[in-house]
């Protein structure tokens, strides 16, 4: 009897530097969704960040085609010379990560990221950097290093620092679309905590004490952001390995630092999709579940076990 072959499934979570013009975001999403075999999973836009995150999945080749079409539409529609927002960015299509979900590994996806990066550079004239598992040097693994100085400072960085020269395309910033970062990474959780203060320096101080690069939590990237429309501030975080540094640990440290500054937490949010186990980690922590507790007690999981594959 032949064994069933596991179907390869890849997630892609491109971040586009547009969160205020719905028609532009819609055009980008339609370009992505127009590829047969790709599943559009989620779209989220933030006006203060002026940024949109699109999540889709499918087989490798289909995902690469959809990612390219999304980047192409962003290059057509977004001009960074007129872009302002709270989130760092160097490109109209700022970052395009590939994430292994099923039947494929991080290492397997590196050649795919290279092919996508080369195509973006050759066909669209946008310089491309590789990051994460696809990075060509240790410093370039970190997205924040490649974004340093933003779009406005990128050309000078390319001219003066060999580590900031692109992997594909000319060492010249595209006049309106900047540059794009393509990479391979584990599932990442974009997690933000809103503070009950408009003082940006307080938010920045909390972020500084939370992020790994300043001696905070391993696997946490954090920055303080002003939310103009809400009249408040936010600690915006990327949890790059939730299995080692869970959501609740990041939240508790932000809360402790906020108390130290005499500031309350207004709310928190998850941007985009999140692995189920990451939320279960939080439930188990706050409910102090132990003893005989097992995740097999979750109704839907038990039903999936007894029903089997459908």
TrEMBL record:
Keyword Transferase listed: yes
Enzyme Commission (EC) number: 2.1.2.5
Pathway: Amino-acid degradation; L-histidine degradation into L-glutamate; L-glutamate from N-formimidoyl-L-glutamate (transferase route): step 1/1
Residue ranges occupied by any Formiminotransferase N-terminal subdomain domain in the UniProt entry: 8-186
Domain Formiminotransferase C-terminal subdomain: 187-302
Molecular functions (GO terms): glutamate formimidoyltransferase activity
Classification via Gene3D superfamilies: Formiminotransferase, C-terminal subdomain (3.30.70.670), Formiminotransferase, N-terminal subdomain (3.30.990.10)
SMART domains: FTCD, FTCD_N
Record-given protein name: glutamate formimidoyltransferase
Species of origin: Carboxydichorda subterranea
């Amino acid at each position: 009897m032949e064994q069933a072959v596991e179907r390869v499934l890849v997630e892609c979570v491109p971040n586009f530097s547009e969160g205020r013009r719905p028609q532009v975001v819609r055009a980008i999403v339609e370009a992505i969704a127009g590829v047969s075999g790709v599943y559009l999973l989620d779209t989220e836009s933030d006006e203060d960040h002026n940024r949109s995150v699109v999540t889709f999945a499918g087989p490798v080749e289909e995902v690469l085609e959809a990612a390219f079409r999304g980047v192409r539409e962003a290059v057509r529609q977004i001009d960074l010379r007129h872009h302002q927002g709270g989130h760092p960015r160097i490109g109209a299509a700022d970052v395009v990560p590939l994430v292994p979900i099923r039947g494929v590994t991080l290492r397997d996806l590196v050649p795919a990221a290279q092919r996508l990066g080369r195509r973006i550079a050759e066909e669209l004239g946008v310089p491309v950097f590789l990051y994460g598992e696809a990075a060509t040097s240790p410093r370039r693994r970190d997205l924040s290093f490649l974004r340093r100085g933003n779009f406005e400072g990128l050309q000078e960085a390319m001219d003066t620092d060999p580590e900031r020269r692109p992997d594909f395309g000319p060492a010249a910033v595209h006049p309106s679309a900047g540059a794009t970062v393509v990479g391979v990474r584990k599932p990442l959780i974009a997690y933000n905590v809103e503070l009950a203060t408009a003082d940006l320096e307080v938010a920045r101080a909390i972020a500084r004490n939370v992020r790994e690069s300043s001696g905070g939590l391993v696997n946490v990237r954090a920055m303080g952001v002003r939310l103009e429309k809400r009249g408040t501030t936010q600690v915006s975080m990327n949890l790059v390995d939730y299995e080692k540094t869970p959501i609740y640990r990041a939240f508790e440290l932000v809360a402790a630092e906020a108390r130290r500054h005499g500031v309350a937490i207004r709310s928190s949010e998850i941007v985009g999709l999140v692995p189920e186990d990451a939320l279960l980690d939080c439930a188990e922590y706050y409910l102090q579940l132990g003893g005989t507790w097992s995740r097999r007690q979750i109704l839907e999981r038990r039903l999936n076990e007894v029903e089997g594959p459908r």
